[in-house]
Design a protein that fits this description.
Radius of gyration: 45 Å
InterPro entries: C-type_cytochrome_biogenesis (IPR051263), Cyt_c_biogenesis_CcmI (IPR017560), Ig_CycH (IPR056412), TPR-like_helical_dom_sf (IPR011990), TPR_CcmH_CycH (IPR056413), TPR_rpt (IPR019734)
Keywords: Cytochrome c-type biogenesis, Membrane, Repeat, TPR repeat, Transmembrane, Transmembrane helix
Strand order of the largest sheet: 3-2-5-6-8
Domain Cytochrome c-type biogenesis protein H TPR: 119-272
Shape: elongated
Distance between the termini: 74 Å
CATH topology of the largest domain: Immunoglobulin-like
Oligomer: single chain
Structural class: alpha+beta
Order of helices and strands: HHHHHHHHHHHEEEEEEEE
CATH architecture of the largest domain: Sandwich
Number of strands: 8
Main location: other
Transmembrane segments: 6-23, 92-110
Length: 407
């Protein structure tokens, strides 16, 4: 609001300066012309008196000449003053008024005053919105209030770019609005300013974990190690480290982190059951990590021309006499054949239905045009014999069949 009044005052000041400068210039012009007329008048009077003194003019002729000169001087000055007063000042006022009107119209018409007003209001509302957002009270911020909160934080950060806490809060707001890249950038700024702040380490690592991307998972693990160096018993850091390790399929690291966490929690703690279940799953996956089937998939020569462009290869294991759902599956783009993959419990689709939970296994390979593992007409597939014992030997599967409409 103050900025709006300052801009309006600046426009009026410019208009006033215009009037002052050009008005004074016109006044100077007026005085200059009147002065010249007066000097000419006095010079002519002196000439008439010299002529009378020399006997050229009689006293009556001198008096008549002075009277005529006085009339002419008065008339000329009156005409000059009238011309200056009726033309130039009016034009100056018109020009000055146009300048102020146009400048004000451009400012208000462009909507800049509205944006500035919104920014000022957001900055004023920032403390109250921040209190409600950070205290996690029952009254949640509405989407409009969240927008105002974000705008207020941007105003604050523009004035105080080294405020690490403000950057952290702004990152959380961006995350709430679904702006993942802006959230990561903001929390990175907060971390760069205060790399040892525990709240930043935990919030930033949780954000990176939510992306599921390998590069961010690795960065999250580094942040959590740093947090645990400060506080080895931090429940939040141990919990997050377990989930990061789980996403990276580092079952041993996940088991270690969650075991340490579970030792700190009371059975009545709301987190206890969740961590206990996650720990059990990680232990099962760790136990089944040694159960793996190595498969080499080849394509029959007569079907090489039938592979669709951009096709997807699925290699999976199922129970030949039980659940048709794959117990483990690997999906990858079709490149060249033969191709070798390894299937283990880490490739399970369900935590309780894994490769190690079966008593017999059959491996299937399918080339799909629509990126779906379900059989569709035109897909190509092949399967192995049923095996009852998993060995270290590589199992060979040849894709030699085209799926027809009737299958």
């Amino acid at each position: 609001m103050i900025a709006n009044w300052l801009i309006l005052a600046l426009v009026l000041l410019l208009g006033g300066a215009f009037l002052l400068v050009f008005g004074r210039r016109q006044s100077d012009i007026k005085r200059t012309r009147l002065t010249v007329n007066r000097e000419l008048y006095q010079q002519r009077i002196q000439e008439l008196e010299n002529e009378a003194k020399d006997g050229v003019l009689s006293k009556s002729a001198l008096a008549a000449a002075k009277t005529e000169l006085d009339k002419r001087f008065v008339n000329e000055n009156a005409e000059l003053e009238q011309k200056l007063e009726t033309s130039q000042p009016v034009k100056l006022w018109v020009v000055a008024l146009l300048v102020m009107v146009i400048a004000s119209g451009v400012y208000y018409g462009s909507g800049s005053w509205r944006l500035q007003l919104q920014a000022d209001d957001a900055l004023l509302a920032l403390p109250e919105l921040g209190r409600r957002a950070l205290q996690n009270d029952q009254e949640q911020l509405t989407p409009r209030e969240l927008d105002t909160f974000a705008l207020g934080l941007r105003q604050k950060l523009a004035r105080q770019p080294n405020d690490a806490v403000a950057w952290l809060v702004y990152g959380r707001v961006m995350l709430a609005q679904g702006q993942m890249e802006q959230a990561i950038d903001a929390m990175q700024r907060s971390y760069d300013l205060q790399p040892d702040r525990m709240g930043t380490l935990l919030s930033f690592s949780q954000l990176l974990l939510s992306t599921g991307e390998p590069r961010y998972l690795a960065q999250a693990a580094e942040l959590l190690v740093q947090a645990l160096q400060q506080n080895p018993q931090s429940p939040d850091a141990l919990s997050l480290l377990g989930f990061v390790a789980y996403e990276q399929q580092d079952w041993q690291e996940a088991v270690t982190a969650w075991q340490l966490l579970l030792e700190q929690l009371e059975p009545g703690d709301g987190r206890y059951a969740v961590i206990e279940e996650a720990l059990s799953d990680a232990r099962q996956r760790l136990a089944g990590a040694d159960t793996a089937i190595r498969v080499t998939v080849d394509l029959a020569p007569e079907l090489q021309a039938a592979v669709p462009e951009g096709a997807t290869l699925f290699v999976y294991v199922r129970d030949p006499d039980g659940n048709p759902m794959p117990a483990a599956v690997v999906k990858q783009p079709v490149t060249e054949f033969p191709v070798t993959v390894t299937l283990s419990d880490a490739d399970a689709m369900l935590a309780d239905y894994t490769l190690s939970s079966l008593e017999q296994w059959q491996v299937l390979a399918r080339i799909s045009a629509d990126e779906r593992i379900d059989a569709s007409p035109g897909d190509l597939d092949g399967r192995s014999e049923v095996i009852t014992t998993i060995t270290n030997e590589t199992l060979n599967v040849t894709i030699n069949n085209r799926i027809n409409d009737g299958r």
